[in-house]
Design goal:
CATH class: Mainly Alpha
Number of domains: 1
Number of helices: 13
Distance between the termini: 48 Å
CATH topology: Farnesyl Diphosphate Synthase
Structural class: mainly alpha
Order of helices and strands: HHHHHHHHHHHHH
CATH architecture: Orthogonal Bundle
Largest sheet: none
Radius of gyration: 19 Å
Oligomer: single chain
Number of strands: 0
């Protein structure tokens, strides 16, 4: 059991909600818009996306093990990596090969979807694979160039829901892209707030993401915007793309978002009291995705 626990720790499975919820939202939109649902397509999409996500997590641990993670004194349950390399539970090489294994699972699922008649998966899948790999991997390391946050928004936001919608319907309609905006903002907010406690170690390791470049003062304003933008985008989705009014149910997590913002403004990120802001950001993402999914499915059933 200890062996299994170490591997589960390395995978950071709870963070899979960041990629699987946009898949759920995209598939639910397809059911509402086209009244179509394929469990086979859904399973292959979810498994492929999960494989790419887990591979990206492992690659991030591998490359950070030579950079900021050994310097990080303020890691939390949500930031600073899984620590399996630093705690000598797995070697860096083992983590790297595990990453390639899971990326391979993602590629195989993509190939299966192409074979089943979804040819544009080749572009969407390659985009996700490239974003997950280049975010951490040398010599590019988007995370160190100030482009990591944009890469995460693109990889886990609108293009991901668009891909899930396309796999279900065979259509690349813009609404499939737009419906990913709320979760795109929130997944970027998760990365953003998780960079706060790491800022000292990241700066020392020349990992110059946007929080390092902007500093904590300006970064708090950006975090506030990222946390509030998803709720404003709901009205954009209703007015411009005609999504059902029921999606206002996704306003339910707004109090959690406001609480997270307040903690982020008043608490130094190196203090244990900052950790609830990270947890609340993840909870806001999860509940927003869940409410969007249920609202679209309910609207489809009673259409």
């Amino acid at each position: 059991m200890a062996f299994l626990r170490v591997y589960l720790k390395a995978l950071r499975l709870p963070f899979l909600t960041g990629s699987l919820l946009p898949v759920l939202v995209g598939a639910a939109l397809a059911y509402w818009a086209e009244h179509t649902w394929s469990w086979r397509f859904f399973f292959l999409t979810a498994l492929g996306v999960a494989g790419l996500h887990l591979g990206a997590n492992l690659l991030n641990d591998y490359y950070d093990s030579f950079g900021s993670d050994p310097l990080n004194r303020y890691f939390t349950p949500f930031s600073g990596g899984s620590r399996v390399i630093q705690d000598q539970e797995l070697t860096a090489e083992t983590v790297r090969w595990l990453a390639y294994l899971f990326l391979g699972v993602g590629v195989l699922c993509g190939l299966a979807l192409i074979f089943l008649g979804r040819p544009w998966v080749v572009l969407l899948g390659l985009f996700g694979l490239a974003a997950g790999y280049l975010y951490s991997a040398s010599p590019v390391q988007l995370m160190s160039l100030g482009l990591g946050e944009l890469a995460i928004f693109a990889a886990f936001g609108p293009p991901l829901s668009w891909g899930a919608y396309y796999v279900q319907t065979g259509s690349l309609k813009p609404v499939g892209l737009a419906v990913g905006l709320p979760l795109g903002f929130l997944i970027t907010a998760i990365l953003w707030i998780n960079e706060f406690p790491d800022i000292i170690a990241d700066a020392a390791a020349a990992k110059r993401h946007l929080v390092v470049r902007l500093g904590l003062g300006k970064s708090r304003w950006v975090y506030t915007a990222l946390m509030l933008a998803p709720f404003a985008s709901l009205f954009f989705l209703m007015e411009i793309f005609g999504l059902p009014d029921l999606i206002v149910a996704a306003l339910v997590p707004l109090p959690l978002a406001i609480k997270a913002i307040c903690i982020a403004w008043r608490t130094p990120p190196t203090e244990p009291e900052f950790i609830p802001a990270q947890a609340l950001t993840i909870q806001t993402h999860f509940l927003t995705g869940l409410c969007l999914t249920l609202a679209l499915l309910y609207a489809a059933w009673w259409r």
